[in-house]
Amino acid sequence: MAAVNPAAATALCGLVLLSAVAGMVPARAQSAYREAPPRLSEADASEQKEGKGLAAPSPFAPQAPGVNAANIPDGPPAEPGEATPAVEQIGSHPAHDDWPAYGRDTDATRFSPLEQITPRNVGQLTRAFIYHTGSKPAPGQANKWAAETTPIKVGDGLYMCTAMNDIVKLDPETGKEVWRHNAGVKYASIPYAAACKGVVYYTASTVPAGQLCHNRILEGMLDMRLIEVDADTGKLCEGFGDHGQVNLMKGMGESVPGFVSMTAPPPIVNGAIVVNHQVLNGQRRWAPSGVIRGYDAETGKFLWAWDVNRPDDHGEPAEGQHYSRGTPNSWAPMTGDDGLGLVYVPMGNAAVNYYSGMRSPEENRVSSAIVALDVKTGSPRWVFQTVHKDVWDYDIGSQPTMIDFPGQDGPVPALVVPTKRGQTFVLDRRDGKPILPVEERPAPVETDVEGDPRSPTQPWSVGMPRLGLPDLKESDMWGMSPIDQLFCRLQFRRAKYEGEFTAPSVDRPWIEYPGYNGGSDWGSMAYDPKTGVLIANWNVTPVYQILTRRKADGLMPVDDPSFKAGGGTEGKGALADTPYGIMASPFWNRYTRLLCSKPPYGMITAIDMHTRKVLWQHPLGSARANGPWRIPTYLPLTIGTPNNGGPVVTAGGVVFVGATTDNLLHAFDAKSGKELWNDVLPGGGQATPMTYEYKGRQYVAIMAGGHHFMRTPVSDALVVYALPGNK
């Protein structure tokens, strides 16, 4: 065992589980217009009594103070409207020097045409500057920070959001702060994480060039405000919404601060801002709605709503009503298609992720699916589901990428959809039909969760290489010593495991592999349209969990006065309104905090989209900052750590990625996959980097803010690199 001891250093790697899993009650369709949630059966109600204070508050109860953070009057319910005609935005055809959108362009390719930094000189990169956002936990505050920010660069401005939603414009050469808009977000509004993935640059069609708010910066916020500020001054755009702000809690019904939030930059498609949001996992079945909405980019006026259980009603709810509660939410970055007038929405699950028995047919149809919405009406044009009746929290966390797929008869407008399963689906974005073959394969169906039968088949993208490893075996269990290995083998034998899609169990723990942080999560992929190469970093980490009310007794949902931080966001949850709670953890040795399955836990892969062959693939991340009992080993052994945050690829032939729990920014040769350079960051690099050029010099930037979920060091540093000198 001594020979594999160093590899043990990666096993924990900061992996802490999100909460989410659900209870069981007889299946019923949810109604959007019920004045109270459906009643439990007598047997279920008896189980429910084991928990205290878990009954749902009335959805008509008033929202708690602070939920409408800007105190904006609701006004009367709005009917559907049409967006102000828009001008073409710079993200459609970015300037050579710029990175004007979260994914660099509206296609979300994360590809830059810059060529100054190459495999030959990347080893000479040095720090050009570090900018400190000032956003970190204050004394006495629990660490919920996870910045995840990718800045954008347009002209002479580098724009970014802090973890707590302040918007900042920096000088791209020096990092000097030009202006700062203080958002005023309060700590109580932090949901699972203090995170802001990015801001949006928008050019108005109704305000002439040279006037205030001709060019704007748009941000969706943790406290559910949508704001626009002038790109040159940082001042609120008075003509947008209520003095520059829109209250996104309107029509949501009962809620509390931190239950609902925005962390992803909303796309603007043909003048419509399309807004999604996350709903905190593991709380209650009748959580606030996952409704998707459209707003006018010029005025902030409501345009339409897509409410899963109110499919034919695209206006705001009538007085005294609310959007359907507990419906699937979408929290990942969406992708907009101006040409087709569509927005591609990566969907999650209904409010109790690991139980599907209470979902309506409409909810089951769109859970863990890509839904293409018409941006004029909010109506779905097509739906493609990546998991049927998902009870594994395989929601889609990545932003889909639009490419011209190299078909036999010429380019096909395609959508590349990464998933947590490591399945990559390639769809015709006009109609959602698979371009590459997808097979329905048999899946395990045995379960003792009553009233919630599993789907007998699941979709597999057989036309693309799988970003995953073989199913677990007992021989894959390992540890620092024979005793550790024996402990993990016993745990493996005790658990229910039937391969991928092992169904939840009540009588014993079950193993989910890959876990809900598996495959490609929110970091997304990068695509080089010149070479047709797709770059992806991904995870293979197992989850060990059990569905039980007794062991979860004492956990309270976030809207209960007795709620305590951590009670439903990392590995355990009250799952109120159901007779069960969830207890979950990484599948690890609880004494050493090393994962029971052998490494690697994280990989990086390059795929040729012309041939759909893997060009290169290897573990991503070293053992240097990881080890047993959370003690760093400082061993530079590349064995593959869990990772969150995506890659970028350049025309210079370099791939940049942070993501790993070794706190490094890595550079790889795009052709061979060889690691060419790395640098130790001041905090965890759980953010997707970006690159830009200014005054003839190419820069590479990454937010090294750390991530509480990954257990990496918290920092407020944006680190920017360049080659020495002016060239």
TrEMBL record:
Signal peptide start and end residues: 1-29
Assigned keywords, A-Z: Oxidoreductase, Signal
GO molecular function: quinone binding; quinoprotein glucose dehydrogenase activity
UniProt organism field: Gluconacetobacter tumulicola
Cofactor: pyrroloquinoline quinone
Name under which the protein is recorded: Pyrroloquinoline quinone-dependent dehydrogenase
Family as reported in the entry's similarity comment: Belongs to the bacterial PQQ dehydrogenase family.
Ranges of Basic and acidic residues composition bias in the record: 94-107
Entry superkingdom: Bacteria
Gene Ontology CC: membrane
Pfam hit, one: PQQ
Residue stretches making up the Pyrrolo-quinoline quinone repeat domain: 99-700
Region (Disordered): 32-107, 439-466
